[in-house]
Amino acid sequence: MSTVPKETIEVIAQSIGITNLSPDVAFALAPDLEYRIREIMQESIKCMRHSKRTILTADDVDSALALRNLEPIYGFTSNDPLRFKRAAGHKDLFYIDDKDVEFKDLIEAPLPKAPLDTSITSHWLAIEGVQPAIPENAPVEAPTEIRKSSEYKEDGIPVDIKLPVKHVITKELQLYFDKITELVLNKPASIPFRRALISLATDMGLHPLVPYFSRFVADEVAQNLHNLTLLFALMRLVRSILQNPHIHIELYLHQLMPPIITCVVAKRIGNRLSDNHWELRNFSVNLVASICKRFGNVYHNLQPRVTKTFLHAFLDPTKALPQHYGAIKGIAALGSRLVRLFILPNLEPYLLLLEPEMQPEKQRNETKRQEAWQVYGALLCAVGQCMHERAKIFSNLLSPPTRASSRPNGKAMIAMSSKRKASTENLMQQQQPPLKKLATDGPGGVVPMNSMSVDMQMQGSAGAFSTMMGVPNVGVSSMARQISNDNTMGREVGGQQSKVSSILAQAWKDDIDAGQLLSSVYELFGESLLSFIPKAEAGVFL
Amino acid sequence: MEEDEIAGYVTAYLKKKGFTQTEKIFQEEFQTNKTNSSPLEPDIAKHILSFSQLESGPARFHDGYSRLRSWTHCSLDLYKHELLRVLYPVFIHCFMDLVAKGHVQEARHFFNTFREDHEMMHLRDLQKLEGVLSPTHLEEMEFAHSLRQSKFNIKICEYSYELLLQHLHSTQSTTILGIINEHINFQVTPGQPSSIVDDPEAVTLSGSSQDAANQINQKEIHWGLLEDSLEERLEKASSLLSDSEKGEGEAKEGETEENKKRPVEGGKQGASIKKVKKDKGGSATGKNTKAEVNTVSAAPRVKPELPMPIIPSEVEQSILEDLRNRVQLSSVALPSVSFYTFLNTHNGLSCSSISHDGSLVAGGFSDSSLKVWDMAKLGEQTASSLSQDENDTSQNPQMGQSGGGKRQYTLFQGHSGPVYAASFSPVGEFILSSSADSTIRLWSTTYNANLVCYKGHNYPVWDVQFSPVGHYFASSSHDRTARIWSMERIQPLRIMAGHLSDVDCVQWHANCNYIATGSSDKTVRLWDVQSGECVRVFVGHRSMILSLAMSPDGRYMASGDEDGTIMMWDLSSGRCLTPLIGHTSCVWSLAFSCEGSVLASGSADCSVKLWDVNTSTKVSRAEEKSGNASRLRSLKTLPTKSTPVYALRFSRRNLLFAGGALAKNG
């Protein structure tokens, strides 16, 4: 009944020397004990409140006891929290772990430091209702303020720093900006810079500085393409800003993207041969990919524009090899779909172009050769990853290398397509546009209509894919197709070669048979591709 | 109802009570009357029946309550929320009945079975009641006692009432019916049930003298401002100033004349307060005619009921200067807030106070010391720049040489218990402190010494406040009284008794004729200083009241409680205008801006919130008729860096000062 069990009463009685306590007495005392404890607690809570605290201390209990004219409990101080230990073997029995203290130790111990004396500091919590961003204030910006600053941004971004800026940046933020830029320019490898990056990635209230930072990055990248370390520092700065959850970076993306893409596909980065610009390109590619992933669904033309830039670099044979490398890496980072769409169709001609550069007898320049191998590696990586994904998707419906063999058995195909339904649901969902329109729209594939259901589905997904890419993309993809068609036409040497190129030219279609694709890619790359394909699938194909 | 059955019950009753004679007679009469049976009144029959059931033990309560509960939950949606209100009083009275009858075990079981239903609304009450385990506890505990002695008022619409009665009669749950009859006072309103929004007045607990509170609130109060206040004089002066420059000179002369007059009166004042009060009243009316010429603010003017202390003319000048330079605050023009952070307090700071000009900051500590910092002298740039706006008002010339030379503050020692409150006099030359040692001490900031020790309370003094004009002060204590003192007497002038629990905070009305007290019994009371009578009881808070503030126009009062709720009250009607909800922890401090447009609240949740008083009062008044009275407007939340806000003060120029001790971690 009472939360105080009568055993407690018995234990207490024993501890004060009453051994023959009758159970009735214990039974009667238990509820009263609980009531008294509650009463004391009620008073101690009052004392706690009047000491303006929200945590109850031993002092409060003592004052409450004093209020009731009871003797305080000695031996407890508020300073250190009491450590209760559970008595072994008893579930509800606790005791305080009091250590024995040697007198000698106590006497010989040096005097503890005197606690600091109480003092007062003053600061502005708010000036006319607005909290200044000073260290004394909590680092929480009022939401209204952020809104205000973003509203301002929509009005007009300070494109040029020299232009008179409408909003005034607080002195603290100015100092912060100066400090960060100084670190970037002078000590990009130092520990303070690393801390600054963390601060950029986590601190609130940096929003007003974003236009300045993006401007700073753009300027510095444009002027310092030869300075690899600086470029790296700038990219890391960009990454930190991107990471900050309190900054709405999307409004500045148009300003930030060019410098990042420059770092991917620039002709020449760094002024020494030993500079590892590949790493910077990889780093920036990751930035681009993360941006596209995060904002791609909000800004529909973001990814197409980025892709277009990369594609231009990739398809222009006059561009330097590092530029090709960046472009390939960039496309690969944006997803295997784009690799199939843009790289695979052009793979064969490109390799023909690349091959002479890689062979020591044809390309004498050691550096050039190395570059070519790097590009080859990137290409292999991109294609391999793409194939790996295809293999994963289609692993449950591996089809034999030729389509013809499966055609007679229409029923089997239908069954297969229903299987596919389960595995690639996302593809199926795109099947909605009407068949007719797609039949005319789908420029690549006029497939014999003998296995209706499968073809319809294939058409649908292919068509839906291109519509999904958005209007600006259509131009790009059709261009790419045209290029690839040109290439294949010019390259119709016959036999196996032409078959490979025609299969690759179809690679942009979603429904291209993974087995066929893989085998043709395998012919181009050889054994080195196998590392990307799961063992089981590889066994089936080869 | 069979007659025989009733007869059976009646005989059983008589037997049980040992009325053997009566029983025999009853039997005889019953036999004779059987032929010409006059049917008993059905009601009586039921009562008799119920008696026999009552005896059937504690299970009756449990069953009765659970039946009522399930019925309520299945009732019509439209009336459900009204019927649900009935459950809580029935619940606690069932519990207390069980305890009173000695069925402790059953009581505990009953309590634990149903407590969840009420935890959201009445958690604190339940925690208190939980410990009640024997009939003696019921007697001893003031809360249970007041519950037993008082009735719940429940507003309910006609149909709900009918439904309830029908249910109780049809199920013959007479136990519950008895409880409802005994402890609930239904205020049946015709028409539709009230809106579902929890109207704070729908269920109210009235004190043991249930009508007393209502009666008290019928009394008239004069909430108007003091006539001939400095503000008024300022307006007078400025209006004259606009007339001509010469006018200003005259106004000043007029003031100095008044000042000359006053000391003469002051000399008489010492003798008997009541007597002088009349004199003063007379002279005040004389001046009043002058004041009425001006079109002053809308607040009505009242005469001071206390003899007013004299303000030295140079102080008056500086105050007038401040008033001229006052910043107008409104919902669009928010105040600047200067925050004083106490460092290294080692959890010992139990109160803090800021002088009217913000230049002095006092902290009361649990080690019995009172420390006063002169912010103007701290030598920091921030402080000095602050003081330039504000400090020209501070008329305390010397803060004295602080003891060790190194110490930044003046240490006042004398108390022998934690210092729970400190209050600066309006000009800043005196500080009052109250302590757990049940004394109040008056200190001089000029001489850095203890001047007087006021003994009167028997228990810790929770709060002490100087009156707006100085000289008088009010204190509140654990002994459930509030007392009025004047500086020159060591005995209190008035003792206000009436609260049912500790008086936790006290605040003066702007016109010095009233004080408000907030208590652990969850009510706020307003007392007439002259008569010592309670003139208003404000019921509505759900937990202990920690802070009070009076609007400068004297019309409104704000009170903050332990849960973080702030309530705005209309003094004349005694009703809550609107609850201001936003804080998540104890509201330690409240302050109105000087023109009353902004309310600032400081809380243990480490924030200062600014509230728009004008909308929260006006809108709710407009909506009062539509029945929806919970409209408020929070203007701004200013979070501090893990510093609970202990004290707030608007300076006369409307700069807000806030103070608090930095918490160790968080």
Automatic annotation (TrEMBL), chain A:
Coiled coil: none annotated. It holds the Pfam family TAF. One of its GO terms (biological process) is RNA polymerase II preinitiation complex assembly. Its main location: nucleus. The keyword Translocase does not apply. Keywords: Activator, Nucleus, Transcription, Transcription regulation. The keyword Ribosomal protein does not apply. This is Transcription initiation factor TFIID subunit 6. It comes from Arachis duranensis (Wild peanut).
From TrEMBL, chain B:
It comes from the Eukaryota. Residues 243-265 have a biased composition (Basic and acidic residues). One of its GO terms (cellular component) is transcription factor TFIID complex. Pfam families: TFIID_NTD2 (PF04494), WD40 (PF00400). InterPro entries: LisH, TFIID_NTD2, TFIID_NTD2_sf, WD40/YVTN_repeat-like_dom_sf, WD40_PAC1, WD40_repeat_CS, WD40_repeat_dom_sf, WD40_rpt. WD repeats lie at residues 412-444, 454-495, 496-537, 538-579, 580-621. GO terms for molecular function: RNA polymerase II general transcription initiation factor activity. It is found in: Nucleus. Residues 285-297, 381-400 have a biased composition (Polar residues). Residues 56-184 form the TFIID subunit TAF5 NTD2 domain. Its main location: nucleus. Keywords: Nucleus, Repeat, Transcription, Transcription regulation, WD repeat. GO terms for biological process: transcription initiation at RNA polymerase II promoter. SUPFAM superfamilies: Taf5 N-terminal domain-like, WD40 repeat-like. Residues 191-210, 236-298, 381-407 are annotated as: Disordered. Belongs to the WD repeat TAF5 family. This is Transcription initiation factor TFIID subunit 5. It comes from Arachis duranensis.
